[in-house]
Structure formats: C-alpha cells, structure tokens
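Lab meeting, action items carried over

1. Structure of the two-component assembly. Owner: GW. Status: complete.
Input record:
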Amino acid sequence: MNRTSRLGIWVGIAIIGAVCWGVLALSRGETVNAGWLLFAAIASYAIAYRFYAKFIQQRVLETDDSRATPAERLNNGRDFEPMDKRVLFGHHFAAIAGAGPLVGPVLAAQMGFLPGTIWIIVGVILAGAVQDMTTLFFSMRRNGKTLGQMAREEIGPVGGAAALIAVLSIMVILLAVLALVVVLALAESPWGSFSIAMTIPIALLMGVYLRFLRPGRILEISVIGVALLLLAIIGGGWISESSPFAGFWTFTPNQLVFGLVVYGFIASVLPVWLLLAPRDYLSTFMKIGTIILLALGIAVTLPALHMPSTTPFAFNGAGPVFGGALFPFVFITIACGALSGFHALVASGTTPKLIQKESQVRVIGYGAMLMESFVAVMAIIAACVLDPGVYFAMNANPALLGDTVQSASQAIAGFGFSVDPQTLTSTARAVGEDTIIGRTGGAPTLAVGMAQIFSGLIGGTALQAFWYHFAIMFEALFILTTIDAGTRVGRFMIQDLIGNVWSPFARTSWLPGNLIASALIVAG
Amino acid sequence: MNDPLGGINQLFPLFGIANQFLAAVALTVGTTILIKMGKLRYAWVTGLPLAWDAAVTLTASWQKIFSDNPAIGFFAQRAAAQQSIQDGKLSDTLVALKATSLQDAHQILVNTTVDGVLSILFAVMIIIVIVDAARIWFGLIFSGKEYELSEAAYEESHLDSDGQEIREREPVGAGS
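Predicted assembly:
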C-alpha cells in the first residue's frame, strides 16, 4: 500500500470517529443508537494505537530491539523466560482485566452514558494505556523490578518507603476485594465452578505441550485448548442442568475461599510457563471471543441506548447507586478500562520478566489496555440499553427500593424514572430469576444487558436465560485470572521488600524465599 | 466472610480510591524516570495524567473523609452509627446504609473507622511520594544536578524479532 492510500484510510477513520463523537455529544432528548458509541470507540483506539502509542515507543521511550530483555538475560525457566508475544499478550490481558472493566461502568451508568464513555475512551488513550506501557518499559529496563522497589531506587528512601508501604497494603486490599467478588459470583453456581476448575488441567496440558511435546506450535495448541475450553463450558451447563454431579460442584463461599487460597499459592509458586501463562492465554480467548461476539451483536442489532446521556445525579451527587457527584467519583468508579493502578503492578510484576523484545511494550502494554477499555465500553452499552427503570431497580440501594415490585416501582418514580411493576417481573422471569430488585454489584445488570443483546443476535427470548448464566460465568472468569497473577506479583513485591534487608530474598529464583513470600500473600 | 457488613466487605469502599492512588504512584515513578533520562520535554506524557489523577483521588479522599453527608463521608457515617447506638434504635440514615439491627450499627462503627483511618493514611503516603519526587524533578530541572538511573546495563540480544535464537552473527558491520 502506498503512502497516499494509507493516509486516506487514516483520514477516513478520523472522520468516522469524529462523526460518531459528534452524534453522541450533540444528541438531546431522543434515544441514541449504541452503534455510534461502538464506532466512536473503535476509531479512537485505532488512531491512538497507530499514532500516539508509536510516538511514545519511538520518541519518548526509544525502545531498542538489539538490547536483550531480562527474560533473555536472566532466563531461569521459572519466573524469567522469553515468551511468545501472543501468549504474553494473553497473559497480560487476563491479568489486568479483572472485575473493574465490567462492574465500574455499570455503576457509573447512573449518571448517564456520556460521562462514563468519555472517561473510558479519553482516559485510556491519554492515561491508562500510557501508564501500563511506560511502567512495563521501565520495569523491563530494571530486571523486572516491582513498582514500589522502582520508587525506592529512583525517588529516594522517604518517598520510596511511603510508596512501598502504600503499594503493598493497597495490593492486599485489591486482591481481597477481587477474591470476594469472584467468590460471590461462583458460590452456588456449579456451571461456573466446573468450567473454571477445568481450565486448570487444560492449561497444564498446554504448558507441557508447548514446552516439551511440540515447542513453538502456538497455533496447534491454541486450537486444542480452545476446543477443550468449549467442551468445559458446555459440560458445565450440562452438569448444572441435568447431571447427578451438580451437588458435587456446588460450593459454599467458605469452601471457595479455601480453594482460592490453595490455588493462588500453587499458581504463584509453579513455573510461570506451566500453569499461569497458558491458563491466562486460554481465558483471554474466551474473554476476547465473548467481547467480539457482543460487539457483533451490537453492530448487527443496533440497540438504542435508553439511558439519557446525563442524568441529574451527575451534578447533585444524590445517585441511588452510589453517592457523590460526577467529579471526582466517575473517575474513581471506572478504574480498569480507563486508568487503573493495579495494572502497574502486573506491568512491573510478571510481564516484564517474560517479554522478548523491547518494542513489544507497545502491543502488550498499550494494546492490551485498549482491549480492556473496549470491554468497559461494552459494559456501559450493556447497562445503558436496559430500560433505566430496570437498571435502577437492579442497582439502587435495596434499602430504598423495598421488597416488592410495587414498592420498587414507586421508589424509582421518586428518582425521576418510570417502570411498571409488570416489566420488573417479566424481566426477571425472562432470565430465569425470581426477582431482579436490588441485584447490586454490577454483574447481574451486565448479564441482563448482555442477555438482551445476545438474544437479539442468536436464539431470541428463548435463550435469554442461557445468555444470562453465560454472562455471570464469564465475569467470574475475568476476575479469577487477576487473582492468580496478583498473588504472584505480591510474592515478587515481598521478595523485593525483604530483599532490601536480606539479599537472598531478592533473587526470585530462590525457592524458600519464593515459598515464604507466596504464603505471606495468600495469608494476607 | 458471610457477614454482609463485615470482613472483606468493609474494605470495599476503599477499593476505587486505593486503585487510583496506585496509578498515581506509577505515574510519579514514570515521570521521575523520564526526567532523569533527560527527556524533560516529554515528561508531560506521564505528568499530565498524574496531575489529573492526583486531583481526582485527593478530591475524592477529601470528600470521603470530611463530607458531612452520610451517603459519602466515612466519618459522617460513623457519627450516624454512634448516634443510633446511643439512642438504642436505628435511624433512617443507618437503614439507608443497609443496617438491619443494632449489631449492624456496631459493625458500621468499626468499618467506617477502619476505612476513614486507612484513607487518611493512603492520602498522606501519596502526598509524601509526590512531594519527594517533585523535589527530585525540580532539583534536576533548576540546578542541573546529575542523577544516576538504576537501569540494568546494556547487553546485546541474541534473539530475533520472533524470539528465535540467532545462530550465526555476522563478524563485520555490528558496529561495536
């Protein structure tokens, strides 16, 4: 392709993006089609990746592919190892994409679709993806040091100590909250528990296959892995519906917590190529596959956004979902998908120890974050295609809604939206639930929204219940991969921290240190 | 764990702010390294997001700590819980915070104290990090002091762009 036609294509993309943004920004009163939002996002991402990320790579960071990365220099087959960039992209994406891109946008939708959308797209391009890419690069240039350790070495003892303590304690809070969300999503769900448990043996198989049986055959093992994964998902559906094993795969929250702790410990200690990376790579297939399917669903059915572009709650701070005004709380609520500090931990944890070439920080650091931002855009669309009355019935503080569809309908009228009790009952029935009132937390809303979009694509209303349960499981999968990578990152952090005092700990290959640090993190 | 107001649930309100504080640490480290690399003219790439993120997180913590609206402020919630415990009955404010018994009021009292104290602690830590880093930035910009980067030394790669080992290296033309 010559220069002029390439230029023409980029000008075209810029015009499409500008038109979509214009329609979104100028629409008043009438409902807006979700397609505008979808294409505004895609065009913005394409331009940002092609121009801004390239500018950062070449001018700001000056990546150098003749320089050996820590993965090559320090290769120990456990934490450090040059990894195929496709597998590493999968690992990195899976590790950064936790609950945030799904839950945050759903909650922020109470202020209308526009504030959240603008923050997700502008935020990721100028802040979130930049943070991920630069942190990955700086950590890679420092043998994969963790964020807190870099702060200590580059800023100084005072700022460094404050950063180390803040990073470690924040990390523990984040992991604990993420674990809570996944436990709540999987509790009493044999389908989710079975499918997710099966990803572990499949990942082990993929790891062994890629290392010993047929090294380098990424495509081959991807096909095998995805086929087995689909079997696990279908099998999970069968187990929960009609098999005698449903009871065996149904866990209480306490059993799940125990299982998570054991799994987190093992995943953090085992060589990264054996379990962690292939499992993340595998989940990424499922995550990106679902998101692309959702995007196709939106592009084909072109649903209208029923939520107004901004609601009064954006300004008066009295929203029934969470309190506080647009500034600063939209920017806190939507973290992953726009800007998330957790990503800096992954980008200075597992990924810099595995990256093959310096220039790959663009596709892995910036690219994976754009992908996650796209997930967040899908989540906000899914929440906003719902009837606003249904949205508030699901997400508002249950204490305000009362117990019956009638009281909820009345309370929602008080918020300035209307929904009749009949709609609330029929929506619940369509997805196979008894009630949708007060199903807070974001996941159920997203699942109902996704079920509506998917059922417009395949299967009609008959399959709405199927899609609903699929979406719930999908979300649990998202979060779980964050926890195993998070535990490993936590282990690196503790090793760096103690390594300041007693040096054998800083060598991540030193097994006792490895085990003690992992135990400390899962205990915390 | 099974208590809807206790255990990990008490940390949930901290989740968002804590996460964005971490981003501030990452962007501060990034800006510092860029300036130390002699790339002051590109420092806005991480510096502008840092300014925005610091404004957002510090405003949010301020409101979470000092707001007298119990839907927002930790200490306003704490006061409401204390009031209910003194009165021996749940106020409307406490019911809106999902309390169903006086037992819950005690739990809210503990939770909001922990959350409030932790958010003060985090905010102070982040301010220390940013101020300490700014000291280095300005020292470097105005006095032209030299700082050493703690980058690992350059070593030539033996992998090609597909990650395969380069078997034969050409003896001439490597340049170094």
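2. GW to write a short summary for the group page. Key points so far: The CA atoms of residues 159 and 166 of chain B lie 5 Å apart. Chain B is about 60% helix and 0% strand.
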